[in-house]
From TrEMBL:
Single GO MF descriptor: endonuclease activity
Alphabetic keyword roster: Endonuclease, Hydrolase, Nuclease
Residue stretches making up the Endonuclease/exonuclease/phosphatase domain: 65-359
Lineage: Bacteria, Pseudomonadati, Pseudomonadota, Alphaproteobacteria, Hyphomicrobiales
Keyword Nuclease: yes
PANTHER family noted in UniProt: ENDONUCLEASE/EXONUCLEASE/PHOSPHATASE FAMILY PROTEIN (AFU_ORTHOLOGUE AFUA_3G09210), ENDONUCLEASE_EXONUCLEASE_PHOSPHATASE FAMILY PROTEIN (AFU_ORTHOLOGUE AFUA_3G09210)
Keyword Nuclease attributed: yes
Protein name: Endonuclease/exonuclease/phosphatase family protein
Matching Gene3D superfamilies: Endonuclease/exonuclease/phosphatase
């Protein structure tokens, strides 16, 4: 019996406008910066028009990426609220591609912008097996004190009673055709600005490491430490960290070179160092594991994996012959693809926008034990 599981950061699926850019230039869209706008009322009108004009193309591409993933269970990140999820599912996934999701789950988390993780599920798998939710739990309120995770690194930016998860760890207890599956959906702390001589990734790594430790603790508390390997669980989401990357060397108008390199340290080592879980994307070739293109000019550009499906050893072993898919057709044209990986972009895709997302859906077909 098989199940298609996917994760996708759709980026800012919102039902509200953000007008803070009038006073905070860092939050003002680049197109409005081209014009002199002195009135806050005029700014709000322009911002509303800009967002509405751009959103339809963007969400059509988001829906096409989800349709191509064709998942039975879809883990999403950056969802405003249930109203946004319902409007997108009905207006785009169902009306546009004719294939929606009847089961929807979202719990408000901790993100200061109000973006949450969510799960969409079909009522049955493609094989006709019933998908049932037995229980759902949010761990958004868990603190460093609760799990005894506070240390000197965290003390530089946090307090002991602060919440561990900057969004949430949403735990779903499922039955797939009567077989158990535990699902953990996360969106770890984003990489921030450089601090104390460290780049944005390294300076925020203690926060993500604590989140990863907390996810592992939740799973070990559920099944018993040392007894998790034989259980069926998956950890899905945007983890904002990577254990390897592909450096893109060159600039537009010249030939690019692609160099793979392993990172010496990652928050995700918490999952992998002792075989606690398997990152199934590592089954693909080293240059073909990326889910996001990052660039700040020709001197800083690389491809990396930020979006993950981690499987328990038992689940990974039962799906040993399977390779995950990465849906890249919604990437903007500025994304640089290694040779042989080029795809046909969705209609109306732009150089930078519109696009489905900067992230790519990751899909894995699981053979359930």
């Amino acid at each position: 019996m098989s199940l298609r599981l996917a994760t996708f950061n759709v980026e800012n699926l919102l039902t509200r406008f953000d007008f803070t850019g009038f006073r905070n230039q860092l939050r003002q869209d680049r197109v409005i910066k081209l014009f002199e706008v002195n009135s806050e009322g005029v700014y709000q009108q322009l911002e509303q028009a800009r967002v509405i004009a751009a959103t339809d193309d963007t969400r059509q591409m988001t829906a096409l990426a989800i349709a191509d993933a064709d998942a039975d269970i879809l883990c999403l990140q950056e969802i405003d609220n249930m109203a946004a999820l319902q409007a997108f599912e009905y207006g785009y996934l169902f009306r546009m591609v004719g294939n929606g999701y009847r089961q929807k789950f979202l719990v408000e988390g901790n993100d200061s912008r109000g973006i949450d993780v969510a799960v969409l599920m079909r009522e049955e798998t493609r094989d006709g097996q019933k998908i049932e939710l037995r229980d759902i739990r949010s761990h958004a309120m868990t603190t460093y004190r609760d799990f005894d995770l506070f240390d000197e690194e965290l003390a530089l930016t946090n307090r002991i009673d602060d919440k561990i998860f900057k969004r949430d760890c949403l735990e779903l207890d499922l039955l797939i055709g009567g077989r158990p599956l535990s699902l953990y959906v996360v969106h770890f702390k984003s990489m921030g600005n450089p601090r104390d001589g460290l780049d944005g990734r390294l300076s925020t790594m203690p926060l993500r490491r604590a989140e990863a430790r907390a996810v592992r603790r939740i799973i070990e508390d559920r099944f018993g430490a040392g007894h998790t390997a034989s259980k069926s669980f998956a950890i899905c989401g945007d983890m904002n960290d990577y254990q390897e990357r592909v450096d893109v060397i060159g600039r537009r108008g010249t030939d690019y070179r692609f160099e793979h390199r392993d990172e010496g340290e990652s928050a995700l080592d918490v999952f992998s160092h002792d075989g606690f879980a398997e990152n199934v994307v590592r089954r693909r070739q080293p240059l073909d594991r990326w889910t996001l293109y990052h660039a700040r000019g020709p001197q800083e550009q690389h491809l990396c994996q930020l979006d993950y499906i981690w499987l328990s050893p038992a689940l990974a072993a039962h799906s040993a012959g399977r390779l995950p898919q990465i849906i890249r057709n919604g990437q903007p044209y500025r994304t640089i693809f290694p040779p042989g990986q080029e795809v046909e972009r969705y209609p109306r895709t732009g150089w930078d926008r519109p696009k489905a997302s900067d992230h790519c859906p990751v899909v894995m077909t699981l053979d359930l034990p």
